[in-house]
């Protein structure tokens, strides 16, 4: 038997390939990024980084309607961006299988919230599968394609960080050759004019009824009967934690969480004395169970936030079995920091202490909000920096003299900043937009975007020039700066603040992790260093302070030279 140790993300990619997937699209976002990176290694699958999740889902839907199996992947908040086509896709249905992967992030390891996207299945009326390890991640992906075609509906595959980034053994199987079904115009099905949409909604409800029956009988919703004292209902990684803590209990393990297997749950309830639901974040299963009129324990004991683990489960239900709860070892808090030599250091050095309202955005540069820079006021969602600044400008007008600044990355600008810039420019706001252009999608691991000149498959493409694009959006003043020259950068920004007119600043330098070492590591001349700590304002992790003198860690320093420029005594050489 051919087996391999795979991440959950890699297993989903393998499952898509084995299922005969032909088109896949995504926008990178932790913890889902590795799905497309792995899938792109299979030559039979066209893969792309789309500019945002809405576009990715529309690309995949188009391919599915054209008759080939397709997949769209995104992190949980990405589904908010893609919600518009998701709801329409449920009405329209598919021609070939369409799978939408949502990777939720309990514990907010790299996200602005920890929403539970199982509720999207309920709201959008689409089935949702929830794997509990890498083998199921692969198997459920394949099943999702089959269900999509069997019930003429897109299928959500929901994973969480612990499934996405944990490895377990997966059995590999060959690719199933799927013959393209071809495209056929079906106006009544794919054109959601009200007259057609009303019919499609009725049809969707009928499809859900058939899915409801399937959910009650599906082998991936299974009872594992043990002692009858209490029965545990769970899905996803919570099943693993619960199994570890209660090895002798009775379980109802849900793989198809929506439509909720109501008859199966009622049958399970009759076999045990007491029902417990163990699930992460929100009480999705618990609410469905309570709606059946069944008494159940769950979030009375478990937290509604953060990741679960076996220790939390053990402590929560200690009264049941455990005499000595095992406490999790406390881990020291390590505040995040920008990388040594990061070009954003020079930009935020120039922005700090400016009397301005600075709207931030999603990306590694969000760390500019923290000391020593403290150079951002907000971080809301992708692309919200420009539109937030626009709203502030319209609200405050001339009553507040502080300039409005928006800071966002190049990938974020392509994702959803362009429309905000057009809106801001056309509606005459005085917003200075700074694009922190490090020539990549930095935070998620250096994925390409329309500005880099390379596709996900590694093929060359014509890069979109940011300056030309901004001018096409109506911006008259576009300035390029090099953040590796922090003094000049600061002077340029200060001049713009005095003008208080709309402009775009493109702060352009490749990500330090891509550029590598820039030169010899810098050193501090202790004879010249007066201990003023001016260099620490740069916020470079290679810089520290000891014995009243600055100190540079040679193994960490990239030799970028920004600290050399800002030292007032020329003590860094």
* Computed CA radius of gyration, to the nearest angstrom: 26 Å
Largest sheet: 7 strands, mixed
Shape: globular
State the helical fraction.
25-40%
Strand proportion, as a percent range, falls in 15-25%
Number of helices: 21
Task: Compute the average pLDDT.
Answer: 94
Distance between the termini: 60 Å
Q: Which strands sit side by side, in order, in the main sheet? A: 3-2-4-5-7-6-12
| Structural classification | alpha/beta
What is the subunit organization of this protein?
single chain
Q: How many distinct beta strands? A: 20
Low-confidence parts: 321-327
Q: Can you characterise this structure?
A:
- With 573 residues, the chain is an alpha/beta fold.
- Helix content is 36%, strand content 17%.
- It contains 21 helices and 20 strands.
- Helix 1 crosses helix 2, helix 1 (8-18) packs across helix 7 (134-151) and helix 3 runs parallel beside helix 5.
- The chain is globular, with a radius of gyration of 26 Å.
Give a short summary of the structure:
The chain has 573 residues and is α/β, with parallel strands linked by helices.
Features:
573 residues; five-stranded parallel β-sheet; 17% strand
List the helices and strands and how they pair.
Elements: E1 3-7, H1 8-18, E2 23-26, H2 33-39, E3 46-49, H3 53-65, E4 70-75, H4 76-81, H5 83-92, E5 98-104, H6 118-124, E6 128-129, H7 134-151, E7 155-160, H8 161-164, E8 167-171, H9 187-190, H10 194-217, E9 222-224, E10 227-235, H11 236-245, E11 249-254, E12 256-258, H12 262-271, E13 275-278, H13 284-290, H14 310-316, H15 343-351, E14 357-359, H16 384-396, E15 404-409, H17 410-426, E16 431-437, H18 466-472, E17 478-481, H19 486-499, E18 503-508, H20 512-515, E19 543-546, E20 549-552, H21 562-566
Parallel strand pairs: 2-3, 2-4, 4-5, 5-7, 6-7, 10-11, 10-13, 14-15, 15-16, 16-18, 17-18
Antiparallel strand pairs: 1-8, 6-12, 9-11, 19-20
